[in-house]
Amino acid sequence: MVVVMAPEATQDEIDAIVGLVRSAGGDAFVSRGVTRTIVGLVGDVDAFEALNLRSRAGVLDAVRISVPYKLISREHHAARSVISVGGVPIGPDTLTVIAGPCAVESPEQTLAAARMAQAAGASLLRGGAFKPRTSPYAYQGLGEAGLRVLADVRAETGLPVVTEVIDAAGVDLVASYADMLQVGTRNMHNFALLQAVGAAGRPVLLKRGFGATVEEWLMAAEYIAQRGNLDIVLCERGIRTFETATRNTLDISAVPLAQRLSHLPVIVDPSHSGGRRELVLPLTRAALAVGADGVMIDVHPEPKRALCDGDQALVDGDIEDIATAIGVLAPLMGRVLTRPAARDGVGAAVAP
Amino acid sequence: MVVVMAPEATQDEIDAIVGLVRSAGGDAFVSRGVTRTIVGLVGDVDAFEALNLRSRAGVLDAVRISVPYKLISREHHAARSVISVGGVPIGPDTLTVIAGPCAVESPEQTLAAARMAQAAGASLLRGGAFKPRTSPYAYQGLGEAGLRVLADVRAETGLPVVTEVIDAAGVDLVASYADMLQVGTRNMHNFALLQAVGAAGRPVLLKRGFGATVEEWLMAAEYIAQRGNLDIVLCERGIRTFETATRNTLDISAVPLAQRLSHLPVIVDPSHSGGRRELVLPLTRAALAVGADGVMIDVHPEPKRALCDGDQALVDGDIEDIATAIGVLAPLMGRVLTRPAARDGVGAAVAP
Amino acid sequence: MVVVMAPEATQDEIDAIVGLVRSAGGDAFVSRGVTRTIVGLVGDVDAFEALNLRSRAGVLDAVRISVPYKLISREHHAARSVISVGGVPIGPDTLTVIAGPCAVESPEQTLAAARMAQAAGASLLRGGAFKPRTSPYAYQGLGEAGLRVLADVRAETGLPVVTEVIDAAGVDLVASYADMLQVGTRNMHNFALLQAVGAAGRPVLLKRGFGATVEEWLMAAEYIAQRGNLDIVLCERGIRTFETATRNTLDISAVPLAQRLSHLPVIVDPSHSGGRRELVLPLTRAALAVGADGVMIDVHPEPKRALCDGDQALVDGDIEDIATAIGVLAPLMGRVLTRPAARDGVGAAVAP
Amino acid sequence: MVVVMAPEATQDEIDAIVGLVRSAGGDAFVSRGVTRTIVGLVGDVDAFEALNLRSRAGVLDAVRISVPYKLISREHHAARSVISVGGVPIGPDTLTVIAGPCAVESPEQTLAAARMAQAAGASLLRGGAFKPRTSPYAYQGLGEAGLRVLADVRAETGLPVVTEVIDAAGVDLVASYADMLQVGTRNMHNFALLQAVGAAGRPVLLKRGFGATVEEWLMAAEYIAQRGNLDIVLCERGIRTFETATRNTLDISAVPLAQRLSHLPVIVDPSHSGGRRELVLPLTRAALAVGADGVMIDVHPEPKRALCDGDQALVDGDIEDIATAIGVLAPLMGRVLTRPAARDGVGAAVAP
């Protein structure tokens, strides 16, 4: 942290800052300039923040320079992590496709979507049993019945299950069915939920809040990590901007950026960011080429009848294009497409 | 809802849309133009949304024209509502000031802040016992001990208490101490929490999400209302934009806009939007002049020692300026400054 | 400027930075911390920027701390400026209303609008002869014929004229008719135009770009000032955000902020920011209460026939409300409403 | 265009709308619903806009449904265009790399950068002689001397030249040296400049304004086209959002979107959007994979000494990585990497 003193700051005011920092267990170094004096701080930045240095007499500004997250930071953990989900790895040497319906509607629809997911190259099945919807009058999901459907489809297809949790109180129930817990974009700042999934003993898929900076996204991951769970996968899904031609603006630069700041894997959701079916294929290619560790895609056997986000779901005719793009781009990026673990429980990452 | 057909749409495709709408219990009217045909829909818009009309053959777009919230809409409830909090009214004829410390730190600090709040003209005391913080390493609040402090200060000062709930599981505990439950900006999309406060039997202060549109904010209020609780006050507190000179951008236009769309009272938080002490007074004046039904202000007896948001808290020297501004602007806007209810429990709105 | 060295920076790399800064005529102070070293720079920041310090070996970041504008900065000119437009002052002790039609359409319409402007309390007439429109197919203005209309209406009413320039080549022509040159929001970054109005010998009204930060707005003013013209008035008119319920989001906080950073007057355009007639009155009140030095308002005798922005123009019935609000709020803010200069050319600021 | 009447609209008000539309040469179709009536309009939308229908009695809203640009729209020109720049094609079957220094500083630096550009696979040389800078104190370019340097380097290397115009008055001068005129992000709304390049007889590279929607970007292209110049290439270069970790947010989705709405080629600038050297390679890969028709990249022989944007310029060591990525991805996307035309003036697109 660097404290910038006001031009008119007195020697006593500068001394007061130095004294405060030292009393908080840190050290301070004073640089006197012609018009300003700068105080460099060394030590625990959180302790310094608690001193409210910006409000002190003679202080113009205080600038943080160290990253505010630790456990998930690459500064302290240079190697990129591999997270295992039901035996399927997500990490720097593989490409993992997660696919499935936005919402679980019925056993038949979910199984059909899972078959589409497999055809697209997926090794993990996504599907929502609890849906956080903007309108209280929109479809809210099947609840536990939906979790049972997902478990049945997993038994049938061998695909481990990723599904959303929307409330701290429901984490244990969802964790008893799912292989990976998804925290959605609207809940990225739901700290009680972050803490609950941090203690749930399951890997977590943490979507970026559509109004959250990359730093806040990493801080949310730190909340989970702080409860002892470092099995976290970050998912970029678009941010809210002034542009209205797409549902959200996919922040493709956030992928290499987050990979540089954190050791956690980073995947992309090209379905929700664009919100339009015809954008899913080009955005999937862009995600793979930018270096994402995986993608998460909406598929639906009959999008016209979908109870949630049908506008963006891929249909049968699109699946082959996606599979081809993935098959070509994965090796080009030095990655092996993952496959679901064999029934005897051993995970695998093999060429398609 | 209006369905816009593609230029190349066939008669069969148009007929199919009409048939779908009628099968969903609605009615459809076809307008044929030279290059396009438009179908106007009458009936239950949510039922139409479930038809996924945008994905149907021959459809270019489908545009909603009716507001998607009902219980809180002014369309169905033209008179603006008055909400009573511990006997203190918030509504169109009064001006209500809520003030207090961002976080409850100690009995002494809270009582001193409450006295400042009273001096500023406040009739309600705010203070956080549970704090949602971006960093897991930041101060998280005193928890239930903080609630007890608030209750004690209420007993001492007569000021009803507004405090934040951050998790559905904690709503009953907070409701047992507080006169009004605050849902914070990061939780505006936490639907489990919205439903819980909807059933808690206490008025709710709903802050706008910093990444949420006015429509989404009203939809969040609808979630609460749908559980039977219409005692909701909306609070504009700034949105996230590209401008970095202020913490957030106070969307002052949202106040008259929300008052026009909903019958609920709308107040402004000038402390969190600007994030700078010197902006609190001008933004308070702007809020009153734009027609807000109240303001919520951070005060702290010693901002330099504040454990949360000290940069924006008012200090003793500012209080008189705020009280003067409120005293002058309230009557100008045709409003009476509210006072806390007398101890016998009868609320009152009287001139200062 | 502060240079933050990377944790692994060597002594040679640190010495290299110090040497570079000194060779550029500055001085550098090194603060060694446990994990990082910080170099504080004193001297000409622009010279330092040219050194590209961020790209140097061992450098993590370089942070500017001094404001990048000088002539318009309040740091070097503490008293707030008063700008005179055809004898009408705009400054800290007065309140100046600029009103008129968005576009000059005919002599009759312009004169009728000028009479409405006077009734609303205006002492300056606005009206566009050259209109920058997003669509090449939209109405582009009357050109020089429109300037002549404005001059005629000025002769008739005594109201000095504010009108827009949209191209450096057209500045001299417009300056030969107008009392004040307006640079519109889409041209705030048109540096050739800024330089041309800087040399035109007329006061300038500089609207904030809807995508520009407060700092960039002030830098645009610095471009004008650098050509020797310090008669600049800043106009906040709303920024582009994710909110679509209003045309733009009025950044009301930018008013006190810009007044604190620059000595130039700051006014507000409540018509273009909201883009809705019913928001003009509340936003005007908010602008006055936040401390703006003036407002600029669209009026039109027949908004339904307006060729430009009719949706936001005030009509006769609104004028009285605006005049009342201004009459009440001006003295409350310690300001005198300005009046046009008498025909003998002496400006005046008198109570209404 | 669709007009939505208010619930309380009378028959007379509806008839008035129909009459107005017919008097403007259009036709109107009325759909009566239970709570609302909708009027569908057929005819010239610009004529309808001039009627100010939103302000008419009984009208709730008026929604445009037809695209507001025509000449560049794909609706009327289904085949995607190929633009030729000094014999080098930019279009759907090729991949064109434009590279060079942000600013022309000297003959030696420009020639060295051009050699780097060639090594990276470039067939067009970029370089700024006139620089639009946010600060009046920053380096503004060499002016005409810089244009002569570019022409000399073109003679030496055979690379046609792309360079920026910043003022309508300077277009002829720049056009006398350059093969393609670049309109920068800050000038996208400078309509006088758009009209001037529309008449200059040279192909135009139109960068998207960082605060502009895709629709406004296309409208700016329409301004150029309306003057008779359809040789326009669109360049996505990042938009301004709340995210501060990157200079701008590359809106990668805008590429397929603009290609779908317009027949013009679309390229990407990965240097300015990220603003960080380490993001250029991943964003270049993403741009190619999403389907861009080309990329424009900053290179500099000595970024540490660059007078403009040195932080983002590629250096020698990066060039090979870029060339490899382009060489692999172009054929994968079904494209041939373009080469400069032979000296006898015949352009060519051949495999590398």
TrEMBL record, chains A, B, C, D:
What are the residue boundaries of the DAHP synthase ferredoxin-like domain, all occurrences included?
A: 1-66
Gene3D superfamilies found in the cross-reference section: Aldolase class I, Phospho-2-dehydro-3-deoxyheptonate aldolase, domain 1
Keyword Transferase assigned to the entry: answer is: yes
What SUPFAM superfamilies has UniProt attached to this entry? Answer: Aldolase
Q: What class of enzyme is it?
A: transferase
Q: Which GO terms describe its molecular function?
A: 3-deoxy-7-phosphoheptulonate synthase activity
Keywords noted in UniProt: Transferase
Q: What is this protein called?
A: 3-deoxy-7-phosphoheptulonate synthase
Q: Which organism is it from?
A: Streptomyces varsoviensis
**Upper lineage:** Bacteria, Bacillati, Actinomycetota, Actinomycetes, Kitasatosporales
